[in-house]
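Listing 4. Sequential folding, example run.
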Amino acid sequence: MKILLINPPNCGRSIPEERYDIDSIRQIFRGEPLALEVLAGNLADHEVRIMDLKAEPNGMQQTLADFKPELVAFTAVTCEANTVLRLARELKDNCGAQVVVGGIHASSDPAFFNQAGVDYVVVGLGKGSFAELAAAIEAGNPTGAIPGIATTRPGGRLSFAPRRYGPLDLAEHAPPRYDLVAENRGSYILSSFNSRLGMVVSAFGCPHSCSFCCIGSLTAGHYLTHSIEAVIRDIRLLGDIPVIRLVDANTFGNTGHARLLAEAIVAAGIRKHFIADVRSDTVVRHPSLMQQWKEAGLRSVVIGFEEITDGDLTFFNKENSVAVNDEAIAILHDLGITIVGDFIVSPDYDDARFDALENYVTRRAIDLPILTVLTPLPGTPLYAEMQERITIRDLDYYTLTNAVVPTRLGEKRFYQQYARLIKAFHANAKL
């Protein structure tokens, strides 16, 4: 069967741009569509293509005409959901292929895609279940018993067969199809490093439950690790690409696995720069692990500091403290590991809180601070808690750079302060 996997185009709308002509906020990173490469790897019995509309925004019509897919699958984060729904309907009209939607938003809010134009919704990791779906469709067999997959019923309710997350979901015997995006490989560059970038997954999920995070919807709270052999294989498949982004939500969620992986990288003679996500409390509890990974090539870590007071961290169910964050920063500075620090700017910020965040980041010499606006994403505990405050329901604005609840400061002032900090931090960034 001919299967087309589609990465949606850069989309999402910007209040500061539309209303106040502030164009320095939207932060677009174009990485390879690893989720689709992973799906494709487990579809060996089919003819598969990947259409990356972020790299080729005008390529869909020609691809549909040339390839004539029988099954099309989209992935989507929340700010892409409306665009994917529109594209699904257009695609239905043009080629009549059956349409599947999966990814973060489908896993967090599957009912959103229970609409005309979509035939199936996938909740959670789809590498194994999507292959089962494709085989069933090709054979004309029933699909209702495939775990995590629902047939849409516009106007009705979705029903999913229960699933257990484990080795069948990882399907790690099949490597990602990196070759399917070879023509776009030159577009996947990390500008901060001025280098080509490749992506590898070593784990899925996170053992924590921060209230704002939607990652847990992919694994229902489980933390799953790929075998060491599979991770090494995938790193090697990327050839001479010098920088590897480990795209796990928490690469060091299982410290024993992380140690074994670092040992294997060194033993295999792999010499690359790695970027990985880590919690600050993991750094503090396991500084020797950070040293080991430094020797294996770890160049940068992404840490969700989120906020600068213990009260705000408690509100996010972060299970962490400012003191621990500060200790982690000191350890990483001593090791010479670059810190990419994620911070959440609340719509409740006033001028004093913007100033406090600026002082915190500057005094701690965080190499690259990343600022997002607190956004209650559908399906998260934060969404349930803040739902009555939400005034913007259009998912196009859920880019993490728009306030979808009222701001304490005047709206224009809020975005001016937000843009000012982004500009100041990036001007002084050291990577």
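-- end of first protein; second protein begins --
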Amino acid sequence: MTKTIIYHNPACGTSRNTLAMMRASGVEPQVIEYLKTPPDRATLCKLIADMGIAPRQLLRVKGTPYASLGLDNIDLTDAQLIDAMLAHPILINRPIVVTSKGVRLCRPSEVVLDILDNPYIGDFVKEDGEVVHAPKQPSS
């Protein structure tokens, strides 16, 4: 059985909302504050592969050294982009959630509902007041 994990930044509203949705569904995930405990190369590569995305799609631009490192250069290889994320974990976009149903970058936070065993959390109000209408529990 796959352990439920969230790669979390408590300073990020999207990450906090995602974690709250997980808890509302009855899940208490392993919380990895990835800025304090960054993934190693093998873990980061596996997360990227399991999400089915390219490393560039995981790069965070806002509030990071993305521009000063020249990461907008389209000639950079996947390995070079991964090197940058390992050297500067703030470049890893978040939150990343791992469940038995898959791995997703949960932006927006309600993407997490697609990979939870119990997505029926009712209406959820995000920190900014936006209401997420979760799927309704099926009738028996």
